[in-house]
Amino acid sequence: MRLTWLIAAVMAGFAGPAFADEATGTTKAAHEALLNYLPFQDQVDFQNATRGQIATLEAEQITAPDGTVIYDMAQFDFLKGEAPHTANPSLWRQSKLNAIHGLFEVVKGGIYQVRGFDLAVMTFIRGDKGWIVIDPLTASETAAAGVKLLREKVEDLPVTAVIFTHSHVDHFGGVKGIVTEKEIAERKIPVIAPVGFFEEAVSENLIAGNTMSRRASYMYGNLLEKGPTGSLGSGLGPTTAAGTVTIVEPTVTVSETPTEMAVDGIDMVFLNTPGAEAPAEFMFYIPKFRTMMQAEEINHTMHNLYTLRGAKVRNGDKFAKYINDTINRFGGEVEISIGSHNWPTWGNVAVNEFWKGQRDTYRYLHDETLRLANKGETMVEIAEQVQLPDGLAKSFANRGYYGTANHNAKAQYQLYFGWFSGNPSQLHELPPVEQGKKFVEYAGGADAIIAKAKTDYEAGNYRWVATALNHVVFADPDNKDARELLAKALTQMGYQAESGPWRNFYLSGAKELRDGVVRAATPDAASPDIVRALPLEIYLDYLAVRLNHPKAAGNDIYLNFILPDVQQEFTLSVTNGVMNYTIGRQDQQADATVTLNRSLLDDINLRQANLADAISAGQVTIDGNQQKVADFVSLLDTFDFWFNIVTP
Q1: Mean pLDDT of the chain, nearest integer
Q2: Which of 43, 104, 533, 619 is the most exposed place for a label (fewest CB within 10 A)?
Q3: At what angle do helices 480-496 and 25-37 cross, to 10 degrees?
């Protein structure tokens, strides 16, 4: 069971051989055009990204007690000098900025950050009695290393509060590296989060987690070597840490805008911002320091309105309105803006310019997509047309290092109109294999297509080469010439990509075409903390998805379950090939009643225990028809993580 997209992606850690392909003339020309378009002479971001640097880890590695490398800052040491021809110069610049690592002073004696120890940023505020910690990274090991450096270089104080800005794992997973549940209880440490945080954090992507995680291994470049012909990072940050994911339940939740609160003597004004970048999220202003914690609603990149790993579409209208509200409330007095990723911005004029650019970027993407859609343009047609005006596009903060104007425009179309363009020819299309076979047949065979694709490749028409050869590969996955030429086209598209995820997708696809699916050392993504925190309802929803529905059709099963250690009970039924359940009830006519502790159920889900062994050991009792229980278990499907992506 893989519970989150990120945990599975972060831990792959496989470094395959670098791509041997040289950049073509077409790719070099695309890079040259971008160098001439963007203001690369502007060094303000580099000044801000290094401002206030105090120290970093001498070893440049964070390790587990057994010596396993959790995070290696040195993996990005290649990001020096000008961009090579195999890398988009704008993405190269962004990656250099994201790779700057260490402990930084943001406000003298007041606010500090650890950056470059993980995908995200961890922030510390000096309260009256200790450190207020904001967004403690993905893994307990990286968070512990960050707080240790802070205590060594600034002041050795206890943690007096924890703030989770939102429900993505890279902003809470390291919490037990900075404070324990026992400390939270004994010292009454407030753990502050937006309303809905805990439910979203423990359930995110569970239902569709296997596919999201597999796609995330592409998105974050975890199967690629870090280097000039491989992954340059994620665009949003460097890369993800491969450590222990933990969670604690909030003690204080914020649901209203504004919510004023003193946290360890520091006054804060919280703005609840759900449904934009995350289902549960807030930003907050610190009047004492005239500083805005922008969370992940504002970044030094265009964010995703749709994430390529797969997730529910996000709403650019909400992004824009939340940022506009922030400008109206605090734009007149703010002096510093800090976030959950990237580096701070200093100065009232600069902050307002930054905020307005981000606001207008999302407003433009949302509104222009709807304008064109209302003129009858389809999703793909719109995505080709939507380009930010120069006033936005020439600002590095609005560039598509993570999201892109192209796939974000598609996302806004999908948000309102769904997958169907309205063209009936696209209403019931053939699946990829059948479509590929007919395409190859109509085009006169694979050899004819490959010959024409070679000509298009030489002409730099890589997108069409990829489209045509994808049909050939799905029609005949063993066609080595088609696979190799498709890989070459994807590689050039990766070299040109300004988006970190786009580059990683293209290059991962090319690698898989050449080497096949390489089963890297990807661990089970089920963090014990997350599994044990799952509400019963989410457990049962996941079981319902795992049911093999065609196989279950005609096999009626009625079971009661009792979980004595948590005093919970439920009944479930399998009828018409689907599973339904009711919590807090027992069915007197059930085929059997199963009694086991919730803790044992957790162990089974974590693969630390086996159901059959637990029954033999008397840890599970079954009253009634045991065969029905066995039948139910046999109907639960398992998911192979390493399914094919670029081939059938």
Answers
A1: 94
A2: 43
A3: 20
* Contact criterion met (CB below 8 Å) for 224 and 508: yes
Maximal CA-CA distance, the chain: 76
What does the chain come to in residues? 648
Q: Kindly write down the DSSP assignment for every residue of 604-626, as one continuous string.
A: HHTTSS-HHHHHHTTSSEEEE-H
pTM for the full predicted model? 0.95
Which residues, including other chains, have CB under 8 Å from residue 55's CB and lie 6 or more apart? 102, 103, 149, 153
DSSP conformation letters of 72-93: EGGGGTT--SSPPTTS-HHHHH
- For residue 539, CA distances in Å to 172, 226, 545, 546 come to 21, 37, 10, 11
Please tell me the distance from the alpha carbon of residue 270 to that of residue 252, in angstroms, as a whole number. 12
Judged against a pLDDT cut of 60, whether residue 12 lies above it is answered with no
Residue type at position 432? P
Q: Exposed e or buried b for every residue in 436-469, given b needs 16+ CB within 10 A? A: bbebbeeeeebeebbeebeebbeebbbeebbebb
Sign of CA dihedral 605, 607, 609, 610: positive
Output the six-digit token pair for 553.
Answer: 């059709």
Residue 570 one-letter amino acid: F
Residue 589: CB atoms within 10 A of its CB come to: 7
The dihedral built from the CA positions of residue 213, 218, 220 and 225, taken in this order, carries a sign that is positive
Q: What is the rounded end-to-end Cα distance, in angstroms, of the chain?
A: 24
Q: Where are the beta strands (DSSP E) in 165-318?
A: 191-194, 252-254, 259-263, 266-272, 282-286, 291-293
DSSP string, 113-182: EEESSSSS-EEEEE-SSSEEEE---S-HHHHHHHHHHHHHHT----EEEEE--BSSGGGTTTGGGT--HH
* Planar angle of CA 313, 316, 322, nearest 5 degrees: 120
- Per residue in 203-240, pLDDT (tens digit) is 876 788 889 889 999 999 989 999 999 999 999 999 98
Rounded to whole angstroms, what are the CA distances from 499 to 69, 288, 337, 365, 444?
Answer: 27, 37, 24, 17, 36
Tokens of 469: 């050869």
- Identify whether the C-beta of residue 358 lies closer than 8 Å to the C-beta of residue 327: no
Q: Are 451 and 430 in contact (CB under 8 A)?
A: no
Distance CA 306, CA 403 (A): 8
Tokens of 486: 């498709």
CA atoms of 34 and 252, how far apart (whole Å): 47
* Rg (alpha carbons) of the chain, rounded to whole number: 26
Q: pLDDT tens-digit profile of 522-539?
A: 444 457 888 888 899 998
Residue type, 410: K
Q: Is the pLDDT of residue 169 over 60?
A: yes
Is 246 within 8 Å of 176 (Cβ atoms)? yes
Tell me the two tokens of residue 508.
Answer: 């991962």
Nearest to 421 by CA among 480, 368, 379, 466: 379
By CB atoms closer than 10 A (0-12, 13-18, 19+), residue 427 is exposed
Q: Is 66 exposed, middle or buried (0-12, 13-18, 19+ CB in 10 A)?
A: exposed
Residue 405 has which token pair? 């104007």
User: Helix 480-496 to helix 500-515 angle, to the nearest 10 degrees?
Assistant: 160
Beta strands in 165-228 (DSSP E): 191-194
